Amino acid sequence: MAVQYSGVRESVPGRLNDLGDSSIRIEEQFKKGCLKRADRTFAQGLQCQQINSMAALMSLEDSVFISHSPQGCVGCTIMAVDMYRVGQAHRGIKLIRNPRIIVTNLDQKSVVFGGEKKLRESVQKAVDRYHPKLIFIYASCASGIIGDDIDALATAFAAEYPGTTFVPIHCEGFKSKICASGFDAAFLSINKYILKKQKKETVPNLVNLFAPTTVSFADQKEMERMLKLIGIEVNYIPFYSSLEKIKRIPQAVASTSICKVFADEFMKTLEEDYGIPYSHTVMPIGIRNTDKWYRGIAKVLGKEAEVEEIIAREHKRIEPLVAKIRARLEGKRVFICGGTGRSFAAAALIDDFGMKLVGLETPTYDADAQVDVEYLNGIHKDFVVDIANMQPFEQVNLVKKLRPDAFIGVPDWAAKLGIPTTHVLDGKRPTMGYDGLLYLGNKIADQLSNPGFNKKLAEHVKLPYRDSWYEKDAFKFIVGAS
Fold first, then answer.
1. Across 76-91, average pLDDT
2. Which of 153, 169, 397, 412 pairs with 279 at a CA distance of 20 to 30 A?
């Protein structure tokens, strides 16, 4: 019998979240099995898995999200809230609304006496105020330490409020240093409390397309367009989805994901529990990765011939346009920072434009990342790899030393160094598929041709690091890697 996945990404052998070295050495050490799980003796901050659990589901219709936590735990939901509001506008919704988030506001007294009373009050308010179909209850470090049994409470609430489905999610921040574990926690709970391992009659050509919060409406339309060209009905989940669409998951003939890190573990679970095959490929950014993503789902569905015809047609359309962008970008040196799926995809993208990769920062390294690094080493020969979950002090050290011509990623720190930056988490504009490639390439080129804002910013903003830090090894505080 297969061992049920725990939802903690570190439980899978070979996953690392603290590492810094050259890409050539990392590739060699991983092949030998010599990469060891390290740690940082100093960390500037970590992205908590609770925010990923919340962000993954925050746009679901008729839902309320209860964070059983101190108030500060939901502070970082602001980015997901922004994405949700912008996404509504792009979808033509006139009356823009915020997600319904309630915080139980655990305090010192709650830690001593328990937080059950506050959770019951929050559920009562949610039902009275919103009459939702779904209530998600998110655990936190505080509620986990207290020991409040949110599963038992959710069962009791379901009996008390039969018109609402309650889904407790165990995303306590101390469970995992790999923030993507938060996605797994959310999906495991959906499987347990909504799908309940109940198989349904298969709907021909229905495919689950999993997408995270950071996918723009333009990218959604592009992915749906590509799949509809081969006769697929798309069940786009969980972003801007609903309880009804979630319940359709077991009816699909196959699953795929726009981000391989987002739903890879859940798609494995769907195959185990419902017999739904899945395509585990790459994020479709750039020509190579878009082709690979498209061929991946086509192979699962037995539609390889149709997809090859479409790919040939798309290449004929976009390659002359890519050549024009390449003339603007060829030879430029790039540093990339982003989530594991998106950063490696962007690293492959820059080859379309003849750019040189000098550094890459991403939260996790595993067997999938190894495949990407082997491919990238064949193109860029050698570059710096920083496996870091939110460690900007390492990033600015590397970027200042490497002095790339462009930075692709979350731009705050690099922009303050005066380097032209392009946001890789652009949930408001197209970045994926064949058309997204053209937009992203032109955007990078425009930033390079007009870097005035970032240069002015560097003149007037001082980063919070001593000059002596930039002279030291960026990976000084990583210990135990070898």
1. 87
2. 169
